[in-house]
Amino acid sequence: SQQGEEDPQALSIQEGENATMNCSYKTSINNLQWYRQNSGRGLVHLILIRSNEREKHSGRLRVTLDTSKKSSSLLITASRAADTASYFCATDENYGQNFVFGPGTRLSVLP
Amino acid sequence: EAGVAQSPRYKIIEKRQSVAFWCNPISGHATLYWYQQILGQGPKLLIQFQNNGVVDDSQLPKDRFSAERLKGVDSTLKIQPAKLEDSAVYLCASSLSPGTYEQYFGPGTRLTVT
């Protein structure tokens, strides 16, 4: 079953612009994670946010979590061509131990 | 620190043949995951091990897929017999413990079934 659903499915922006991706989920969670996947480095963990947190930052990444709306957003500021990749959110179903990945957002950053 | 190792990187087989994938997790990581990622989709968890015990294999097609983790370290995922719809990338990941910790992924094995 797929828990997280990313939106949009695809996003194309110019270098230097900000990119925002959203993730919606259905059940209660303990944690939500964002991962990046590109052909060069495979799947890489970006950030984990716990259910009692509302916002986290890591470099140019900003993640928010709204448990009342069952949604999260990932903001990448000042995007670079190297940010071109697919971005996935992963949530644990019903406070479970396993993370379920959504279908992902394909981000293209044009030079 | 060495990452998660997987082999082979690519495999092409005919339907009804068998295939095996190998994974060596990061040293000290108790939890090991196998995922199937079909082109254009997110990874789907097939099986999760905690040391050498199975935590979750609810989405593993047990009539054709099997996995083991001997001595709680390396793991092998087998498909026998393969079907066309098994064409996918098989990803192995490990984490210090289940659930709350980030997962470290290997490069994956791209399987093509013809």
Explain this structure to me?
The complex is a heterodimer of chains A (111) and B (114). With 111 residues, chain A is mainly beta. Chain A contains no helices and eleven strands. Chain A is globular, with a radius of gyration of 13 Å. The N and C termini of chain A lie far apart (37 Å). Chain B is an all-beta fold and 114 residues long. Chain B is 0% helix and 48% strand. Chain B is built from no helices and eleven strands. In chain B, strand 4 (31-37) and strand 5 form a beta hairpin. The relative contact order of chain B is 0.33. Chain A binds chain B through residues 2, 4, 30-31, 33, 42-45, 48, 50, 88, 90, 92, 96-104, and chain B through 35, 40-45, 48, 55-56, 91, 93, 98-100, 102-108.
Short note summarizing the structure:
The complex is a heterodimer of chains A (111) and B (114). With 111 residues, chain A is mainly beta.
Characteristics:
heterodimer, A: 111 residues, mainly beta, 6-stranded mixed sheet, 58% strand, B: 114 residues, 4-stranded antiparallel sheet, 11 strands
Number of helices of chain B: 0
Q: What's the Cα radius of gyration of chain A?
A: 13 Å
Distance between the termini of chain B: 37 Å
- SS summary, helix count of chain A: 0
Rg of chain B (C-alpha, Å): 13 Å
Biggest sheet descriptor of chain A: 6 strands, mixed
Biggest interface between protein chains, with counts per chain?
A-B, 23 and 22 residues
The helix/strand order of chain B is: EEEEEEEEEEE
Structural class of chain B: mainly beta
Q: State the share of residues found in helices of chain B, binned by percent.
A: under 10%
> β content of chain B, as a range?
over 45%
Helix and strand element order of chain A: EEEEEEEEEEE
Distance between the termini of chain A: 37 Å
- Which strand-content bin applies to the residues of chain A? over 45%
Unreliable sequence segments of chain A: none
